[in-house]
């Protein structure tokens, strides 16, 4: 990240500019959550600085682009080789492995952000790298001009005055050995087959050797699912069901302007349920009939019935947790 601060302000402001897709916003959210826990017991950074985060969406490509490389993802994990990242190349839209829903959500809340920051993703790389050349000035007196992208980021950091609050979701996970762990996410959570598939894809060359099965070939999980369904009245309506699923996914629900008016923050719960499974002695068993249902919820609890599952936070391959038997949101 790029860092800067105001020396003349009464309370110094530390600006953190984050480049990335939803997986990076999730990493930053977890880093910020850890920082707040540490600062609550022994304040060091927040005693002197007020933090401001500026988010610039970035598309991630799986293939090395022919255009110049712009930015690596910030905050890489130890030993993690940052993938190539580009700010908006429409030809790479089919190769993205992470969404940009958080930036679109901010754009819904703030039209200025949608026009000036989110709009950068629609510009080709050669335009973003162009510099505005001074006119009618001697060459020796001409000041070096910044590329359009850098100039826009500076403008964003200096003049953006409206803060946007993002909901942070907390989940408690229980592992096979009884160990408990608390994690947070900001955009999405994947459970079961979808999380395992993401882990296999992240293994690089190993993904060809391991193979990636579709939902029909996935081994189903018997899950005890309890969820609080959101209602217009704001009252909680709890449902407790046992489902045989390949995957259970949660994602941020606000995608349209009309959904922003709701007072209750909710998540989309998507269950990929196996209705009928074909068993054969001669052939490999497969899921013959699959049903996908979606419900808006605000609280969820899932328990594996004599089975464990994988959990992935915010599409982050470095944050896939294995051997989970229970989690609660």
Secondary-structure topology with pairs:
Layout: E1 2-5, E2 12-20, H1 22-41, E3 49-57, E4 59-60, E5 85-86, H2 101-109, H3 111-116, H4 125-128, H5 148-159, E6 169-175, E7 180-185, E8 188-192, H6 193-202, H7 206-210, E9 221-229, E10 237-252, E11 267-278, E12 286-304, E13 309-313, E14 320-328
Word description of this protein:
One of its GO terms (cellular component) is nucleus. GO terms for molecular function: 1-phosphatidylinositol-3-kinase regulator activity; kinase activity. By secondary structure, the chain is of the alpha+beta class. It folds into 2 domains: 10-60 and 97-132 and 146-166, no CATH class; 169-328, Tumour Suppressor Smad4 (Sandwich), CATH 2.60.200.40. The chain is built from 7 helices and 14 strands. The chain has helices at residues 22-41, 101-109, 111-116, 125-128, 148-159, 193-202, 206-210; strands spanning 2-5, 12-20, 49-57, 59-60, 85-86, 169-175, 180-185, 188-192, 221-229, 237-252, 267-278, 286-304, 309-313, 320-328. Strands 6, 7, 8, 9, 10, 11, 12, 13 and 14 form a 9-stranded antiparallel beta sheet that branches. Strands 1-2-3 form a 3-stranded mixed beta sheet. The longest helix has 20 residues, at 22-41. The radius of gyration is 23 Å and the shape is globular.
Write a concise keyword list for the protein shown above.
329 residues; alpha+beta; 2 domains; nine-stranded antiparallel beta sheet; three-stranded mixed beta sheet; 7 helices; 14 strands; 20% helix; 35% strand
């Amino acid at each position: 990240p790029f860092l800067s601060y105001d020396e003349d302000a009464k309370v110094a402001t530390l600006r953190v500019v984050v480049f990335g897709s939803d997986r990076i916003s999730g990493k930053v959210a977890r880093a910020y959550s850890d920082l707040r826990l540490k600062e609550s017991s022994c304040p060091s950074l927040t005693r002197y600085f007020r933090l401001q985060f500026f988010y610039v969406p970035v598309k991630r490509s799986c293939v090395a682009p022919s255009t110049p490389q712009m930015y690596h993802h910030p905050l890489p994990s130890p030993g993690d080789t940052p993938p190539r990242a580009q700010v908006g190349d429409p030809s790479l839209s089919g190769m993205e492995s992470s969404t940009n829903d958080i930036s679109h959500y901010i754009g819904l809340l703030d039209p200025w952000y949608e026009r000036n920051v989110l709009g950068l993703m629609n510009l080709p790389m050669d335009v973003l790298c162009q510099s505005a050349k001074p006119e009618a000035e001697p060459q020796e007196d001409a000041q070096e001009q910044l590329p359009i992208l850098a100039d826009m980021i500076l403008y964003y950091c200096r003049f953006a005055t409206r803060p946007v609050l993002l909901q942070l979701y907390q989940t408690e996970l229980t592992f096979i050995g009884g160990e408990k762990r608390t994690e947070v996410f900001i955009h999405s959570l994947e459970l079961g087959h979808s999380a395992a598939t993401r882990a296999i894809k992240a293994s690089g060359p190993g993904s060809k050797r391991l193979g990636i099965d579709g939902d029909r070939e996935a081994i189903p999980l018997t899950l005890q699912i309890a969820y609080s369904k959101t209602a217009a009245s704001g009252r909680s309506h709890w449902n407790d069901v046992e489902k045989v699923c390949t995957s259970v996914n949660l994602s941020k629900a606000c995608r349209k302007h009309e959904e922003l008016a709701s007072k209750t923050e909710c998540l989309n719960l998507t269950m990929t349920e196996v209705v009928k499974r074909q068993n054969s002695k001669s052939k490999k068993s497969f899921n013959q009939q699959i049903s996908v249902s979606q419900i808006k919820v605000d609280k969820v609890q899932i328990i594996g019935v004599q089975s464990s599952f994988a959990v992935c936070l915010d599409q982050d391959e470095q944050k896939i947790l294995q051997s989970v038997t229970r989690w609660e949101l």
